[in-house]
C-alpha cells in the first residue's frame, strides 16, 4: 500500500521555527485534512512536500520517493500535485488554456484529452465557460480551474491548500463535493484548511496543527465531536 509519511520534520525560515517535529501519515485512498489557524504551518507543510521548502531535519517520504531531496519537477512527474493557496490561475488565458497548463509533465496528448473530458464531466460549469478568461470567473470557478488543472497532470496524491478560502458556504460545499468525487475516482487527497466544519465533513481523518506541531489527531468523526476542536475551530 502506498503512503505519505512525514516524520519529525523541522522547517525554519531564518530564526522562525515554522514546523516543529511535525509527523503525520496519509494512506492510499484517504482524504486527510490538516486543520489549523493562520500561521500554523499548513502552507509550509505543503511546500515541503512539493520540494519547494526543505526541512532542516526529519523525514518526508511518499512511497519510494524522498521528498526532502527530490526535485520539484520529479515530485510532480511522480504524481504528487500541489494546488497552492490562492489558486494562481492566469487571468488573461481562457479556462481551457489554464487547464492545459496542468499537462506540462504529460507527454501523451491522448491522456491529456481524456483527462480534459473527465474535468469537464466532473465540473460542467467549466465546460460551459471553457472559452471565458480566467480573470472573469468567480472565486469558486477559479478554484475549480485550479483543481481541474491538477487533474490534467494525473495526480495520485493531490495536495489542496485552503480550497475554501474566500468562498461562500454554498460554493464551499460544491468544491468539497468535487474533492470527494476526485477521491472516489482513485486520487488520495491531503487537504489543508482553516474551515474545519467543511473539511471534517469530507475528510476521513484529520490532524490539528498549532504553531508547527500536531496537537490532536483522529478520524474526522472523532475530531468533529472533540470539545477542544469544537471550541477552537467549530464555534458554537
Ligand atoms: P495561512 O493559513 O495564514 O497561510 P499557514 O498555516 O499556511 O498560514 P505558513 O504560511 O506555513 O502558515 O507559516 C508558518 C509560519 O512560518 C508563520 O509564522 C509564518 O509567518 C512563517 N513563514 C512562512 N513563510 C515564511 C517566509 N518565507 N519567511 C519567514 N517566515 C515565514
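^ C-alpha cells above, recovered residues below v
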Amino acid at each position: 500500500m502506498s503512503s505519505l509519511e512525514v516524520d519529525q520534520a523541522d522547517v525554519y525560515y531564518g530564526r522562525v521555527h515554522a514546523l516543529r517535529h511535525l509527523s503525520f501519515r496519509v494512506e492510499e485512498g484517504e482524504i486527510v485534512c490538516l486543520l489549523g489557524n493562520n500561521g500554523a504551518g499548513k502552507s509550509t507543510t505543503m511546500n515541503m512536500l512539493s520540494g519547494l521548502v526543505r526541512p532542516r531535519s526529519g523525514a518526508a517520504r511518499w512511497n519510494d520517493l524522498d521528498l526532502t531531496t527530490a526535485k520539484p519537477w520529479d515530485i510532480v512527474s511522480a504524481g504528487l500535485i500541489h494546488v497552492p493557496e490562492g489558486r494562481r490561475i492566469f487571468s488573461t488565458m481562457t479556462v481551457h488554456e489554464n487547464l492545459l497548463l496542468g499537462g506540462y509533465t504529460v507527454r501523451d496528448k491522448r491522456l491529456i484529452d481524456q483527462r480534459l473530458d473527465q474535468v469537464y464531466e466532473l465540473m460542467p460549469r467549466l465546460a460551459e465557460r471553457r472559452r471565458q478568461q480566467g480573470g472573469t470567473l468567480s472565486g469558486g470557478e477559479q478554484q475549480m480551474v485550479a483543481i481541474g488543472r491538477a487533474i490534467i497532470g494525473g495526480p495520485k496524491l493531490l495536495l489542496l491548500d485552503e480550497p475554501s478560502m474566500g468562498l461562500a458556504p454554498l460554493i464551499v460545499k460544491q468544491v468539497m463535493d468535487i474533492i470527494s468525487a476526485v477521491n472516489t475516482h482513485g486520487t488520495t487527497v491531503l487537504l489543508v484548511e482553516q474551515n474545519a466544519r467543511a473539511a471534517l465533513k469530507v475528510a476521513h481523518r484529520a490532524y490539528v496543527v498549532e504553531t508547527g506541531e500536531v496537537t490532536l489527531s483522529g478520524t474526522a468523526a472523532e475530531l468533529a465531536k472533540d470539545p477542544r476542536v469544537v471550541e477552537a475551530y467549530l464555534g458554537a
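The domain at 3-233 is CATH 3.40.50.300 (Rossmann fold).
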